[in-house]
Write a structure and sequence with these properties.
The chain has 243 residues and is an alpha/beta fold. 44% of the residues lie in helices and 27% in strands.
Length: 243
């Protein structure tokens, strides 16, 4: 009987790609005049609040305002134009990656893993990243298209849906759960991290770090050109460089 192949699942934004693709897409849409520049300035104020760490909810406030603006702006937009924007974003950002995650993908390919990407970014973006890194399959957010136009309706693949989507991918590819790996950077990835043998919290948010500590998960931090692994020992994490 043929042995089943193990799988790895990787988040994209902030885990493989160093920036948030959804945010980069909005910037590109402003340049294409799909999004009104004056309206976008209010979103940029929220982004600056996040970057300034005004409060713990700054990122959520920024992201919600960004999603709301995009959902309204894309109503009636030609789908081919939308795909052109996505290709433009990926051509710029596809190689701006974290070395830990990029090298892990190479290693897992050599070990014959099935590799999935699961992301809240639009499928049109995630499909291009999947193709570029020759991953096996993906799940992402979907935008409704009717008669070649975007309707503004979407199915956002949030944290609650990541685990169920991973289950679908495992079943579709008949992947083995032994030696399985997941890499994520935020609390939205907790569901899929709980499903694997080796969960890796990568540059984790505060909430993900708390979950990692509670479960003694592996934690990896990448800063500049150094990758550190936080090893859990005697009730605390000890910082140790992996290279």
């Amino acid at each position: 009987m043929k042995q089943l192949r193990p799988f790895a699942v990787i988040d994209i934004d902030g885990t493989l790609i160093r920036w948030q693709l959804y945010h980069a897409m909005a910037d590109a849409m402003v340049k294409r005049e799909i999004i009104d520049r004056r309206q976008y300035m209010r979103v940029l104020e929220a982004r600056n609040n996040w970057k300034s760490r005004v409060n713990e909810n700054s990122f959520t406030d920024y992201e919600n305002s960004l999603i709301s603006l995009i959902d309204k702006a894309i109503i009636g937009v030609d789908y081919q134009l939308f795909k052109d924007v996505c290709r433009e974003v990926i051509s710029r950002y596809q190689n701006q990656t974290y070395t830990f995650t990029r090298d892990l993908i190479k290693q897992l390919k050599a070990e014959d893993y099935i590799i999935f990407a699961i992301s809240a970014s639009p499928a049109e973006l995630v499909s291009l990243v999947t193709a570029h890194y020759m991953l096996d399959d993906f799940r992402a957010s979907d935008y409704e298209v009717v008669n070649g136009k975007l309707t503004g309706k979407s199915r956002i693949l949030n944290g609650n849906a990541k685990a169920s989507n991973l289950t679908e991918l495992i079943q579709k590819h008949a992947a083995a759960r032994y030696n399985s790996i997941a890499v994520g950077d935020s609390e939205g990835d907790i569901g899929m991290l709980k499903m694997v043998d080796r969960p890796i919290a990568f540059n984790p948010t505060k909430k993900l770090m708390a979950e990692a500590r509670a479960n003694q998960w592996e934690v990896v931090i990448e800063r500049k050109n150094v990758v550190y692994q936080l090893e859990y020992s005697h009730g605390q994490y000890v910082l140790a460089p992996t290279d």
